[in-house]
TrEMBL record:
It comes from the Eukaryota. Keywords: Ligase. This is Uncharacterized protein. Belongs to the IAA-amido conjugating enzyme family. Residues 129-200 form the GH3 C-terminal domain. Residues 44-113 form the GH3 middle domain. It comes from Hibiscus sabdariffa (roselle). InterPro entries: GH3, GH3_C, GH3_M. Pfam families: GH3_C, GH3_M.
Length: 200
């Protein structure tokens, strides 16, 4: 959820932010052992007593499962769990980046959800690409002391040429120097250029 860090920093007014754990309704996965670190530096340590964990390299077939002791540092994996309550080899569909180890415990960063995407036909836009496109348009707004607070998107296929609709909530810190319609149009063009070639 890295896209929310600037918003949290803006509204917290410098207060410390702590994220204690990485968990889901299935079970607890890991703990943040450095509670006062910056949100962008959070690393979770897997708690192997909460479930049986195996990892699947991001670009591998389902037969290439890796035990916690055999992971490679600086690689991305998908988490697969078997819980005490009966889930067996459940794919969590989160992408994790392995940072290293704390004692013998594996440490990782949450990167993104796997397969969260926009798609009309053969084009595929995942969450990371959409976030990058938003960041690219945000650069055009900096000189106007304006930033993207929040965004959302959906696929509109009501017309023959389907397209993505992306809403951005902007916060202009100086209303006298707010972005003009031309600048907002440039942001739309930049967004279009940032999406993949198949969609364009």
């Amino acid at each position: 959820m890295a896209q929310y860090i600037p918003t949290l920093e803006y509204y917290s007014g410098g207060l410390p932010m702590a994220c204690t754990m990485y968990a889901s309704s299935e079970c607890y996965f890991g703990l943040n052992l450095n509670l006062m670190c910056k949100p962008s530096e959070i690393a979770y340590t897997i708690m192997p007593n909460m479930a049986y964990f195996v990892l699947l390299p991001l670009e591998s077939s389902a037969s290439n499962l890796v035990d916690l002791s055999d992971v490679e540092i600086c690689k991305e994996y998908k988490l697969i769990i078997t819980t005490w309550s009966g889930l067996c080899r459940y794919k969590v569909n989160d992408v994790l980046h392995v940072n290293g180890f704390h004692n013998a415990g594996l440490q990782f960063c949450f990167v993104r959800r796997k397969n969260v995407l926009l798609s009309i036909e053969s084009d595929k836009i995942d969450e990371a690409k959409l976030q990058k496109a938003i960041e690219n348009t945000s650069l055009l707004l900096k000189e106007f002391n304006t930033r993207v607070v929040e965004y959302t998107s959906y696929v509109d296929t009501k017309q023959i040429s389907g397209h993505y609709v992306i809403y951005r909530e902007l916060l202009a810190n100086d209303s006298a120097n707010a972005p003009t319609v031309d600048v907002l149009n440039q942001c739309c063009l930049q967004m279009e250029e940032s999406l993949n070639l198949v969609y364009r």
